[in-house]
Amino acid sequence: MIHRPFLLFTCIALLAGCSTHKHVAASHPNGKPEVVIYMKGEGEDAVKVMEKVYYPSGKLEYVGRFENGVEHGEWVYYYENGTKKYVEHWANGVEHGIHYDYSPDGQIYRELHYEKGRLVKEVDLSKPK
Description:
With 129 residues, the chain is mainly beta. It has a single domain, classed as Histone H3 K4-specific methyltransferase SET7/9 N-terminal domain (Single Sheet), CATH 2.20.110. It contains 1 helix and 11 strands; from the N terminus they run αβββββββββββ. The chain has one helix spanning 4-18; strands spanning 20-27, 33-40, 47-54, 60-67, 70-71, 73-78, 84-91, 94-95, 97-102, 108-115, 118-124. It is flat, with a radius of gyration of 20 Å.
């Protein structure tokens, strides 16, 4: 029979080992965070899982995820007013998928299609067809 205190301690220990830790890696001269990284794990086993970069105003400039130490998944960049600037897609450290560029009014004006880091197609949506 497993005692409740032991089971509770085990669950807490497992959750603590999986937690993500936030670290301000750089700050703007005004003291606001510039680069914030999120690490999973402890000590030498810790790995970067996400990065957020901020404008001096404190508004988010971009956010991206990492897997196995390299860019992976969706990375989103913003204009300082909060409107999307562009969106990238990464797979194991190389761009893969469609990269969208946005104008300051939030409209997509260009698509860049990547296959394993190689640009294979560019679509200019700002020109009338």
